[in-house]
## 1
Amino acid sequence: MSEKNVRLGIIGLGAQGGTYAGLVDEGRVPGMSLGAIADTDPAKRELAAQKFPDAPFYDDHLAMLDSGDVDAIVTTVPHFLHPEMTIDAIGKGVHALTEKPAGVYTSQVEAMNTFAAEHPETTFAIMFNQRTNPVYTDLKALIDSGELGALRHTSWIITTWWRPQGYYDQSEWRATWGGEGGGVLVNQAPHQLDLWQWLCGTPKKVFAKLAFGFQREIATEDEVNALVDFGDGVTGHFMTSTNDIIGTDRLEMLFDKGKVVVDGSKKVTIHRLTQDERALSDSMSMQDVAKLFRGEADQSSVFTVEEKDYESVWGKQHLDVLTNFAAHINDGTDLIADGAEGINGVRLASGMQLSAWTGREIDLVDFPAEEYLAELNARIQEEGKFPTRS
C-alpha cells in the first residue's frame, strides 16, 4: 500500500461536502487526508471550526487552491459551478473530483473536458459512486462478457425520488432554471442516466414528454417519460418523477440470449436462453410452443433462471470513489469514472428537456448545444432571479 497522502480540499461545506470531509477526517479514505475547506457562506466558518478544527478555512476557493494546503479538491457546489471550479483547480495543477452532474449544459461540460484533456498530468474524475455498487458492477461484467448477446431493448422506471413541497421550499435555488438548471433529471436521476448508458451504451436520439411543475409548485420538470434510440433498432424507455410516494425502481434489459431485471437496485433476475431467441423461434413448432406455455414442457430446455439478492451499505459507494481517486493520484490505479464521461448524462438530460420544449426528436450525436442554451436562458430570464448563462 502506498504511504503517499493526498490532501483533499472541500469546496462547499453543505450536506455532501460535510459527509466527504467527515469520511476523510476520520481516516476512512486510505492515502487521503483533509487539507482545507472553502465556502462563501460565513456561517460555515464556525461550523468548520467546530467539526474540523485542524483544517484551514477559506471563504474563496481560489485562495484555497493557491494556498498550498491541498493537492486535490471535490466540488460539492451548485451544478452550474462544477465545470468552472474544476477548470480552476486543474489550471493550478490541483486534481479534481467533480460531483454529479458534470454540469447543466453541454457546452460548459465540453469546455471542462477539453481543458482537462490538455492537462493529462492532473487527475480528473467524477463522483459516479453507483458504478461501485456490486449490483451494477456484476451486471456490467455479465453484459461485457457477451454471454447474453446483443441488446434489443431496455426500460428503467425510477420513481423512488418522492419529494414533498417542503423540500423545494427550503432554498430559493431549488428546482429553478437559473439556480439548479432543471429538476429531477439534474438533481435526483443523474446516477441512473449514467448507469443506463454505462450498461447499455450511449443513445443516438431521444424523444421525451416532460411535465414542468406538474404536481409541485416549481418551474422545472417533476415527471419524465422518454424514448431513446440506440441505433440498429435498439430502443429504450426512461421514466422518472418526484411525485410518486410509493415509488418504483425497475430496470429491464432484453438481449438476444436472455433477459435481466433489476428490482429496487437490490434483486437481480437473470434469464439465460439455451439458444439465441431467433434460433429458438425458428426451431420450435407450434405444438412445442403450446406445451411450453401450458407448462407441459421442460422449461430448462428453453431458459434457466438465476436470482441474486444484494445488500446496500450506506455511504460505502462514496467512500469507494474517494479511495479510488486517492489511489489513482498516488499509484496510478485506474479510475472508476473518468471525469470526461460525465457529459453523456448531461447531454441525455438536456436532450430530454429540449425535446419536451420543442416537441421533436433530438439528435444526441450532433447535439444542438446552442439551441439548448438559448431555450434554457429564455426560461432563466422568465424567472427573473438568476443571471443567464453563456
Note: The chain has two domains: 6-129+315-338, 131-311+345-383.
## 2
Amino acid sequence: MSDSALIDELKALLDDGKVLTDAGSLASHGIDWTKHFAPAPLAIAFPRSTEQVQAIVRWANERKVALVPSGGRTGLSAAAVAANGEVVVSFDYMNRILDFNEYDRTVVCQPGVVTEQLQNFAEEHDLYYPVDFASAGSSQIGGNIGTNAGGIKVIRYGMTRDWVAGLKVVTGSGELLELNKGLIKNATGYDLRQLFIGAEGTLGFVVEATMRLARAPKNLTALVLGTPDFDSIMPVLHAFQKELDLTAFEFFSDKALAKVLARGDVPPAFDTECPFYALLEFEATSEEVMEQALAVFEHCMEQEWVLDGVMSQSEQQLENLWKLREYISETIAHWTPYKNDISVTISKVPAFLRDIDEIVEKNYPDFEVVWFGHIGDGNLHLNILKPDDMDKDEFFAKCATVNQWVFETVQKYNGSISAEHGVGMTKRDYLHYSRSAEEIAVMKAVKAVFDPNGIMNPGKIFAV
C-alpha cells in the first residue's frame, strides 16, 4: 500500500486535522533533544482518547507500520526519534488531569500532562509532586514514565516509578490493561505496571497514569559550597547526611559554572573560584535544623573540604542558587554536547570518576569537558563539547570511539550506562555493559509478549 493510502486510512481513525504530514511537523515531532539522527517519520498522529490510541495500534498491526510515542520530546537518548518512516503518536491533546483524591493523595493524569502542570496542581492543593528536572516545563508525564525520569530530588524522593500508583496502557496488540489501580498494597502476582515504567514505549503506550503526591516541603534552604577537589565532595555529603535529611545534593565543575555565569542570567554564589561545587538542599523546619546545618558547614571548612560557601536567605536567593545548577544543560546545548549519563553506587563515585576522567583527558585533550550530576544518588553527567569549527558527524564519531573504554569502566564498577535518560538508540549498542546476555534475552521475550508484531518503538533499547 502506498504512503498516501496509509495516511488516508490513519486520518479516518482520528479527528479532522489530527494527522499532519507537512515538513515542519515531521521535523519537530520526529526528534527529541538529541541530534544524532535525522527525523524521517511518515506522519504525526494526535489521538484525543484511549479508544483512538487503540485504533491506531490495531491499524498499525494490520498494516505493519511502526509507531513511535511522542511527549515533550525532551529526551536525551533518541527514544522519541522517528528516523525510519514510523508514525509518531503524539499525546499533546491527551493532556488533562482527570481526577484528584485528597485522601489517597493521588492524581489521575493523561500522558500529555506536562510535569510542571502536575507540580502546580499539587501545590494548589498544598501537596507536592517531587520528580523535578530542568525540562519540567515541557516534559510530559507519559514520557517521564517511559524513561523512569529521575532529576534533582532523587536522593530524597526516588525516581518516577516510586510515584506511579497505577497505569492504563495500550499494549502492542491494542489491548487495554489497567495495572495496580492505585493500590498501595497489592500482592497478587506480577506487577506489570513496573514493566511499562522505563520501557520507552517498546511494550505499549501509557494512556492514563495515577500519580502519588507527597506532603509539601517546608522552608527549603540551599547551600552552595566550593571544594578544592572532587574527593572532598563525598565527605561533605556524608557529613551533612549524618545530621540532615537532604532533599538534593548536586555537583558541578568550574567549567560548568563558567558557562552559566557567562550568560549573565544569574549572579555567582560567591567570589572564591573553586574547581568543583556542591549544591545541597534541606528543609529548615526549625532554628535547631539551621544551627545543625551551620555547624556541619563550619566542620567542613575546618576539615578543608570546603573553601567557601553560601546559604540561601530568601526564596529568590534559593531560586538563584538552583539556577547555577539547572541552567547548565540549556547553556551548553549551544556546543552540541556528546552526553554520557552514567551511574554507580554512591561509595564508588570518587574512584569511578577518577578512572573516567583519566580516559577523557587522554583521549579528548582538545575537547572541553563539563561535569555535573546528581552526586547524591551516584549519577554523573559527562558532557564533551563540540568545537565550533568541527563537523557534528565527525565530532560524534570521535566521541563514540572512546565509549568502549568509558562503558568498560562502568561495567567494572557494576554501574549503569544510562542512569536516567533511558537507552533509546544512542545507548542500545552498549546495553550489554550493564545487562547480561540472559537479561537481554528475557527483555526481548517480554517485548514479544506485549508487542508480538514488533511495531512499538522498534529499534529502541535493543536493535530490531
Note: The chain is about 35% helix and 20% strand.
